[in-house]
Amino acid sequence: MTPRRWSHWTVRTRMVVMTVAIIAVALTAAIGTAAVLLRGYLTERVDRQLDETAHFAATRPPGDSPAPRPPTGGKGDAGHQLDVPRLYYYDAAGNYLFAQESDFGETPSALPGIGDLASHAADGEPFTVSDEDGGTWRVEVAANSGGGYSVVAMSLNGTDSTVTRLVLIGGGVSLLILVLLAVGASWIVRIGLRPLTRMETTAARIADGDLDSRVPDTDPHTETGRLGGALNTMLSRIQQALDDRAASEARLRQFLADASHELRTPLTSIKGFAELYRRGGAPPGPILDDTIGRIEDESARMSLLVDDLMLLASLDRQRPLDRRPVDLLAVAADTVRDAHVRAPGRPIALEPLRGQDILEPVTVPGDEPRLRQVLANLVANALRHTPPGASITIRLGESTRDESYVAEVGARPDGPVAVIEVADTGPGLAPEHAERVFERLYRADPSRVRDHGAAASGAGLGLSIVAAIVSGHGGCVRLDTAPGEGATFRVLLPRD
């Protein structure tokens, strides 16, 4: 088996093969160990029997020693007399004399060569010899008290046969166990891998374009469940990212279309007035002056739109702000004065927040020109979209409370915040429009007729600029409004 072939196997096959292989090695080691221990135990029994027989033979005259005990017919006798000790006598010179007859009435066959009897007798330990037929014998030599040597021998064929039977039986049982184990392991692994199979099926559906598919196994107490949960989370985020990308592309297309429309309108007007002048339709005098004035107004309007677009692009790049301590009370007071100049007949007031009695300075770290633009845009938005008699109120203070709102851009800062409110008593907004007022080039009432002039008209970018600047300062903008109840834009800025 080459590594490449192994790598092509399925996980199920690998797990089953590895399990069976490990158990096979364990069973083989167990059988081998049992065989070694059993052979050692049986050999030790033979040695004790040899030692007992040799002791009696050495202390009695030749021929007077008790005959070896015949087999008892028990399980260890194997039905033959090869497992019975055999007694041989030798003289002091090591010459063979005779053999003791057993209780079977037979004389043992000649003993294989056993070497120097004197050295074996001095050693006193049993040893193993082999005969011409390939059998093995356990032999012990003892010096007789009357001279000469007694040699006790016992065949190990019975021991070898017992050990062989153990190995064969163990091998057969092990083979059966391995077969059953392979079947059981395959079934268990198949059940265990079902969640992975379901994940594979889900992944295939997702690859085919079904992004709503999810892995059904999400039990956090199992490995596959935790994996399934992680995959589902990843898939949800991927789908959300794709949805956000699609929505962003749709907004970009809409933005480009709206920007093109906004630029086309003044360009068309300028082109028309220029064509009128070229054809002599605007002779010197009041008509020409009016034509030139209209061209200037449309040019200013287009210039303002381009400036707003460039500002938004700059804010989108998140360039570092020039942060310095900014007194919001001074900024608000200047904005009120500018609004009075712009709309002398409008009631515009500067007040403390609701629940606060004194209007006090509030300082925040920020970019002062940008924060001035925030207030200017909010007031300009209120002037533009409310009737002439509607009042506008700027409120300033510190707060830790959360007021109600229907739309929000950015995240509320932690801890105490500086709050600027621009509230009007105009017609208000419906909820479906309130949620989109911070979108670029969005108008709540696109069908209404706008006033001409750069100062009075708007391209729908003022509130988008407000949201971008406030978000860049780490704050948020909220809108609380309802039809017929006016609108309140609330800016929350961090104090630190």
UniProtKB/TrEMBL annotation:
Gene3D superfamilies in the record: 1.10.287.130, 6.10.340.10, Histidine kinase-like ATPase, C-terminal domain (3.30.565.10)
Domain Histidine kinase residue range list: 258-496
Region entry Disordered, spans: 54-80
The reaction(s) this protein catalyses: ATP + protein L-histidine = ADP + protein N-phospho-L-histidine
Location in the cell: Cell membrane
Family matches, as SMART domains: HAMP, HATPase_c, HisKA
All residue ranges annotated as the HAMP domain in the record: 190-243
Transmembrane segments: 15-38, 166-189
Main location: membrane
EC number(s) from the headed UniProt entry: 2.7.13.3
Enzyme class: transferase
Protein name: histidine kinase
Keywords, comma-separated and alphabetical: Kinase, Membrane, Phosphoprotein, Transferase, Transmembrane, Transmembrane helix, Two-component regulatory system
